[in-house]
């Protein structure tokens, strides 16, 4: 449910969803989208209420490395040339009404 909320929100703010739940033997990327000139790899995190621990903390260095590795597999398979790419994290607080926060450039490949 959180991934659908995130995808709908991203579409509403100008992201063009290319693929959801891209999988390879290394892992999965929740959403791959275009935003302007950027190819964006999006990790979606959810929580039940704003009082819950911020789920962004679960995107630690190990998870960032895995996302970057899966992104490289995607690039190798699907992209001849990419002008630029970035890694965003979308936080979804599910309870009514849902709240969505997009963290652009949440981490970079050089940081993993």
Structural class per helix/strand content?
alpha+beta
Our count of helices gives 2
Main sheet attributes: strand count, strand direction, barrel closure = 5 strands, mixed
First CA to last CA: what distance?
Answer: 29 Å
CATH architectural type: 3-Layer(aba) Sandwich
Instruction: Average the pLDDT over all residues and give the rounded result.
Output: 88
Cα radius of gyration in angstroms:
14 Å
- Please give the CATH class: Alpha Beta
Assign a percent range to the helix content: 25-40%
Task: Tell me the overall shape.
Answer: globular
Number of strands: 5
Q: How many structurally independent domains?
A: 1
User: Which stretches are low in confidence, meaning pLDDT under 50 for 5 or more residues running?
Assistant: none
């Amino acid at each position: 449910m959180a991934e659908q909320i995130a995808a709908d929100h991203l579409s509403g703010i100008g992201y063009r969803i290319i693929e959801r739940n891209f999988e390879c033997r290394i892992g999965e990327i929740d959403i791959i989208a275009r935003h302007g000139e950027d190819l964006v790899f999006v990790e979606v995190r959810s929580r039940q209420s704003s009082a819950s621990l911020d789920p962004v903390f679960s995107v630690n260095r190990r998870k960032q490395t895995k996302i970057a590795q899966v992104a490289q597999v995607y690039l190798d398979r699907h992209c001849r040339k990419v002008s630029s790419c970035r890694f965003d994290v979308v936080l979804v607080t599910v309870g009514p009404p849902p709240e969505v926060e997009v963290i652009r450039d949440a981490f970079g490949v050089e940081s993993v």
